[in-house]
Protein 1
Amino acid sequence: MIEVKGLHKSFGDETILDGIDAKFIRGKTNMIIGSSGSGKSVFLKNMLGLFKPDSGEIIYDGELLSEMDGDRQKELRENMGMLFQHSALFDSMTVEENVMFPLRMFTKMRRRERQERANDILERVNLVNLNTKMPSEISGGQQKRVALARAVVNKPKFLFCDEPNSGLDPKTATIIDNLIQELTHEADITTVIISHDMNSVLEIGETILFLKDGIIAWEGTNKEIFKTENEAVTDFVYSSELFRKVRIAQNKGL
Amino acid sequence: MLFEVFKRPTKGIVLKELILKEINDLIIGSLGITAFIALFMGAVVALQTSLNLDNPLIPKSLIGFAVRQSIILEFAPTIISIIMAGKVGSYITSSIGSMNVTEQIDALKVMGINPLNYLVFPKVIAMLFYPFLIAIIMFVGILGGFLAAVYGNLVSAQDFIIGIQDNFVPYQVLYAFIKTMVFGMILATLPSYHGYYMKGGALEVGQASTTSFVWTCVTIIVANYILTTILL
Ligand SMILES: Nc1ncnc2c1ncn2[C@@H]1O[C@H](COP(=O)(O)OP(=O)(O)OP(=O)(O)O)[C@@H](O)[C@H]1O
Ligand SMILES: [Mg+2]
């Protein structure tokens, strides 16, 4: 479980996060939603320790991130997987080397074993025959999936995904969503997913935090989000034409 | 920053591979262009000396002496280092800089890898081999002078070789290699610093490379002055 308490973050005099309290539960796919520029990525980077919070605490399984020493943090980080919004693949390495990287750094596996594991996971994200390509030679959506493969290959205890299915076609997006959910349930890990894709929210939003104006403006589940009266949330959810139509249909009792 | 470079080291076998790659990129990859420049610079020094030697009382062997002194004392350590600032310096800044702006460095941090150790330490170690490159450059430079002098009929081969051996002070070679080591460390660290701490996007990566080149040159030139004052 990850807890966030009273998190504040500003850049200059622009306040991005203005007192965030949140809990991310183990064994569940926890989602953060909110409009573009609302500070979702900044929130995640504070949780990961990539940005230093102005105030507030990040707590991993009861342990304060700010009070962990270098060795303890390293240990924790070896159990973290992160999918960056723009993939952040190592561009001097092939697809396969990227995926094998965490295994290479943190396990004693032989090359053969690493390769097998990498191939397995690449298959699960629906990528085959790209192993020897460089990141610059594959599409953005393919890069995303390689990055997801790299994030989960070493079986992390904490998985963070910043918009895992942006740039993917609906079918692939569903495959990826389901994969993340499966991994979360199978291995009982704590998963945090940023998204503004309402399909994903509906599919795998087991807990949902709605970020607006620097605070958590609403929280609930994918069952509740379509019933809430919270105006900010309905405004966000039903800005999609499709969902508006579904809502109208529901209201008519169809 | 320098302290961080040696902290929380990367796994040994990975580090070894990174170091070999850097030796290949930074040292071996620079051999061709620097040797080419050295060959012609040695030749030009021989030509210039010869053209300015109109006093018959001064022996022709001075050409060999002048080539040796200028190549070993300044050209090989200092001028080649400035060329290296352009070649490997801007390569280092732009490669680390682009890893920075595309969040690859953040990806390393999230995994608990010390990016400074992972990225900079192998370069520092690779640059310990820089004196070997410079030794080759010294040889090639003097060879260039020899070829130009002998085949241009400026001086006989014997006289040139007498000149090369004339008044040889081993300490000067030591001085040249101490400079080389210092410049090598500057070349490994300063451009890394500029890449690692830059902010912005692709445009800023280009700007960082330029800034890094300028600062690396200035640092080398000033260090050269200081070292010469201290050592000679
Ligand atoms: N390194 C930074 N320095 C200064 N300001 C930043 C920095 N990173 C983000 N911001 C600002 O923080 C705000 C939130 O950015 P963030 O990337 O978290 O948005 P987001 O919710 O992830 O949006 P999107 O859905 O488009 O990815 C933006 O206004 C951005 O300008
Ligand atoms: Mg974002």
Note: The pocket of adenosine-5'-triphosphate (ligand 1) is lined by residues A 11, 16, 34, 36-42, 85, 196 (CB under 6 Å).
Protein 2
Amino acid sequence: MSEDLLLELRDLSVSIVGKKETLPIVKGIDLHIPRGSIVGLVGESGCGKSMTAKSINNILPPFARVTGGSIIWRTEASGEVDLALLKEKEMRKKCGTEIAMVFQEPMTSLNPLMQVGEQIKEVLTIHGVERDNKKAKDRVIEMLSKVGIAEPALRYNAWPHELSGGMRQRVMIAMAMICQPKLLIADEPTTALDVTIEAQILSLIKELCRNNSMSALVITHNMGVVSTLCDYVYVMYLGSVVESAPVKELFNNPCHPYTRGLLSSIPHVGDNPEFLHTIPGNVPDMKKHFKGCDFCLRCSDDIKQCFFEKPALTETGAGHFVRCHRSLGA
Amino acid sequence: MQTLISARNIKKSFRIGRKKRFLAVNDVSLDIFKGETLALVGESGSGKSTLAKLLMRLIKADEGSIAFEGQEIEELSEKEMLPFRREMQLVFQDPASSLDPRMNVRDIIAEPLETWKVYDSREKTDERIMELLDMVELKEDSLKRYPRQFSGGQRQRISIARAIAVNPKLLVCDESVSALDVCVQAQILNLLKKLKQEMDLTCLFISHDLSVVSFIADRVCVMKDGEICETAPGEKLFKSPEHEYTRYLLSSIPGQ
Ligand SMILES: Nc1ncnc2c1ncn2[C@@H]1O[C@H](COP(=O)(O)OP(=O)(O)O)[C@@H](O)[C@H]1O
Ligand SMILES: Nc1ncnc2c1ncn2[C@@H]1O[C@H](COP(=O)(O)OP(=O)(O)O)[C@@H](O)[C@H]1O
Ligand SMILES: [Mg+2]
Ligand SMILES: [Mg+2]
């Protein structure tokens, strides 16, 4: 079973390490990415999605650190390694071309002073994947065409500012894909885009995964994105996974009150409720430690136990995990 | 139905580069009826914000006419415009940049009341501020605090309180819930709907999110490239869209 997992986060913790105190922001999460599948990670902003993603390929900001658990990476080329134990340099050598990342705002990740084609080509040459200049350029042009950029040979010479938001995101995806990674981590890849462009980018990611036997971890706060793109989904709240399930199961049978609240607070074209469902209260401060369930103060379904004891993530159906005393029949 | 704002054949172009001009709003006519929430939807760059600014006369149209309660406002001087300014209030997308970080909540909400000299005493002004806090569901102890001490959703509540303080006839919300998380977004959308019912507000609601629009709007205008390509009651537009572009937009919503 575990050989089929490309990536396995085991009890992973990330904390902000200050002089006086350590503030946990990712609190022991388990997350599996099976080969060839697209896994979603959803939750409200601040719940720790990006930090989880950044810990995988070792690009956490200086103030944050992996403080526990392991990140097991399994490929034929590198065998089984714990990425959490690697230094940045080893990491780059080991899987610099095997894990690629796409961010929300392509403009900040592109060099404004370099033509986009050259930027993509640089990825190839830095990793020594293709040393021949002409061949490298051809590969870039082919990739640009694959991500749906018209007249790729011409666009090779375009500057980032000459491209629209959607085109820049395509360039970012081309750059991520050029070394044929095994895993694509996409952090809010379409949040800054218009809905029509979003639809195009999502089907592009899906198609690229299918045709290149690539896996993906897609981070988003948009449940619609999850339902079109993902096979399996993890719901995060305050640094923990509160529920995870195959996508259809999660939408048809959400069990955690937070997941249910999240799903029902989204307006949908076609149903016209008088008012939307809302989860009472706000996301609590990560700094305040609470010994009970993290969600219990906003929960309408809470029982006594919720105040005193953190529920464990428990399998309630095939591949369906829930962290809630109530749904465990307590 | 009474018309609050009526715009006819308005055009607006911007200079880009030395010689070229870009037509941001092209020959748009529209009516906003009293008491309704009219939504403008469209992709970024389609001209939604520009059209809203034209209707509020924050910028001047190149051509066309705009009437507010039957009175032409397009040609009015700044001074003549003043009484109309009070009647049209705006809530922006990003409350972080539209709220003065150095002012506390009391002063932020008091500002429009004092500018328009709505009350003759500080007591009455403060009474109104308390009432507004209650309407936007903020606690009393918010008064002495500063914008940075609030979450994004709470800041948007402050902006809304400020905008409705002087009982405007028109509230313009430009992507006012776009930056918020779904749970907070639902709270603010509910608040806007509640206020509309309580105050009989007319609202021009701008958004690129069709699902949000379907919840809040009575009528919807779909914009594309500076033009309105379809206007219809919300239910009709989402059930049986007529324009090809509207259908394209609807089919692009992920997960629908
Ligand atoms: N620049 C920062 N400085 C201090 N704390 C931060 C910073 N960025 C993130 N954090 C903390 O890390 C938590 C998780 O952040 P992040 O993973 O970016 O959330 P998400 O991607 O789910 O929106 C936040 O709640 C915040 O407390
Ligand atoms: N002050 C301005 N100068 C030049 N171009 C502008 C100006 N304001 C808006 N535009 C252009 O007009 C078009 C419509 O913009 P806007 O009304 O902001 O669209 P939306 O709100 O629908 O995203 C865009 O292409 C924008 O670049
Ligand atoms: Mg993030
Ligand atoms: Mg706009």
Note: Residues 195-211 of chain A form the longest helix (17 residues).
Protein 3
Amino acid sequence: MSTHTVPASVGTPEQQITLPFSKAWEISMKSIKIRLGRSLITASGIMLGIAFFSSVRTVVLFPITQTGAAAEAARSRHSFLAIMALLVCFVGIMNSMLMSVTERFREIGTMKCLGALDQFIVTLFIIEAGIMGLLGSMIGWFFGWLIMVIPHLFGGGARDLTSAFFGGSAVQAVQSVLIGLFITLIACIPTARSAAKMPPAAALRSEI
Amino acid sequence: MAANEYVVRTKGLVKEFRMGEESVRALNGVDLDIKRGEYLSIMGPSGSGKSTLFNAIGGLDKPDSGSVFINDVDMAQLDARELAYLRCHTIGYIFQTFNLLPSMTALENVTLPTVFAGLTTDDGIERGIEVLNLVGLGHRLHHRPTQLSGGQQQRVAIARALANNPSIVLADEPTGNLDLKTGEEIIALLRELNKKQGVTIISATHDYKMVDVSDRVVWIRDGKIAKIEERADIELAVGAIKDESAH
Ligand SMILES: Nc1ncnc2c1ncn2[C@@H]1O[C@H](COP(=O)(O)OP(=O)(O)O)[C@@H](O)[C@H]1O
Ligand SMILES: [Mg+2]
């Protein structure tokens, strides 16, 4: 086979290059867009969790009508609810992220066959999860907040919508988005990392 | 040339799978030297160890013992980056289930390995179009896998395997999900690429249609090489094999 070029890997093995972040961004965006339906389901898992959390938190911003021991009880009930909401949120997001990584084991195996480095695959998943976590949490916060605000729009309720309330809401919005994003990323990164580390043959074998 | 005559060599490959108490020796001491530029078929019944051998040669799974040399480089000595380079540049993979990325068009699928090889977007697209033309799919650049027939998907997969000009194309049951006629077309295409591009083709299969085009056939049974037939033997035996497969 005289026409055949001798591959460069004879003698000293060459190393695979690290791709720029922009390439990972490009591929992730494409993937989110194409599987928009699937991405929306994953994002809505995040959204519902954060909406629950946000609604519980918003209630606290309204003036408490009870006094003394009753007010104390209401406050601790709200703390309890907020913690529960966070747990539900955590489990929900964990579940969505686990699903969204495991259903793509084959893709991970295929990319590794084509020369992808493990870190590149993890980066893809971090970008996708980050975007879904960010959008899901923002929308989730807004819905949770809105549901609590709507009843106050009628009758005399509007007087509860003070500038202090809106100030408090803004702080909570930022908190909710950060918490949502944080949970999404800690749910995604270990799963994506272990998937990327699998031998390609194992990743390709998965039948989901 | 002598040192370079063999593109792949395996020595004493053993791979065992444990499932609870039981263990299966999928490979039980495989020594195989594959010549540069040949079309080699690995034949054997289902469960004989073909895919396990495919994975070991392709660096997709590590054998328990024994070694695989690609162009005289011991694969076990490669670190993660070197292994990724090898998968990217030296070997092209073709699977029974095509394994195209569903979110990408034919052209994007074929371009992906060139991205990993560091080609610019323009160069990658140019190369992608070139290889898609080569497999006869120049008119389906922007179709997604779901919009293509099985045979067309396998052509995209072949184009993708060729994108970075590998010296080896490894195929695992490439005709396994295709009907008879489409399977024949894919086999003819692989043979043509082997002849024209000089790429070594190693194909695991239990499709007897593959025997006709092979330079050598390695018969494998229970994780061991049962026999190796050269082209000359094959031509004599083809008739007999066809009779056998008809039953
Ligand atoms: N991941 C695995 N876990 C357990 N057993 C396996 C695994 N892969 C293959 N085997 C077993 O190893 C043997 C060879 O399998 P394989 O290489 O897939 O055969 P072929 O491709 O020739 O059909 C079979 O007995 C199979 O059940
Ligand atoms: Mg098999």
Note: The beta strands of chain B are 6-19, 22-35, 39-43, 65-70, 73-74, 91-94, 168-172, 200-205, 216-221, 224-230.
